[in-house]
Specification:
It comes from Mesorhizobium montanum. With 136 residues, the protein is α+β, with helices and mostly antiparallel strands. Helix content is 43%, strand content 15%.
Length: 136
Amino acid sequence: MRRLRYIAFIHKDPDSIYGVSFPDMPGCISAGVTIDEAVRNAVEALSGHVRMLEADGDQVPSPRDFDAIMDDPEFTGDRNGAMTTVIPLIRDRGSTTRINVSFDLGLLEAIDAAARERGQTRSAFLASAARKEIVD
């Protein structure tokens, strides 16, 4: 399965937070106080939007490449003053799968200690770290 990534526009007006919109995903928007928060929230917004489209039996729009978005006259106003970024679609399937992975014992001990500090299970910590790595 190929990794789907959607172009997003990030806007910030004076005295406002950062707003995020997706040219290929009409109606999907997000925001954040910082750019990093806006991008993290955009990942969640994109996932939730796709989940709702699929639940309604609607087609999920395919992402276009950067040049196609930038050349589309429909988005001339949206592009004005916007920063662009790429947001990965991380599908939340609502079910977990048991897997077998191998780690160096010292790394595993560090993972478990960090998970305990955060009040997380090892699985939750690793999932959170993986999501962060995929987004960054």
